[in-house]
Amino acid sequence: MKSNYQRTAEWLKACGKEPGNASHLSTQIGCHLEEFVEFLETIRIDSEGGELIANRVGYDLAWLANKLKKGDYTAHIAPHLRVAALDALCDSEVTGNGVAYIAGFDKEGADAAVLNSNDDKQVDGKPVIQPGGKIGKRPGWIAPDLSGFIGNAAT
User: What is the pTM of this model?
Assistant: First the structure.
């Protein structure tokens, strides 16, 4: 069975996104930030002022993610920071899986549903590439229903 990393790498390769391409890396960093913002929008902070801070951080990160995805800004990983960047990415995956575990989510099932949904965006086995290189969705594509993977543990 292929790992989530392998399936994601194959998907990106099929979409023409290759390692070493600075523009593709910058766009993918924007996508990564965008997904963190989506998560940030789902949490509620009970401490006074916490919600305001989370909203402000989310707004700023969403703005930056959009600039990176559109190519208005570029981001890179400095050579001397590549080990630290890899460590942070691995830690992000571990801590994200930890949140999913403690929240009672079926993360493995949800991962498979999301990756299968990405495969379903293709037309005749090929990804839909929009003008500017954005990965699109085929007509009639439906986002995966993850409601069966949430369980009912910690809220």
Answer: 0.89
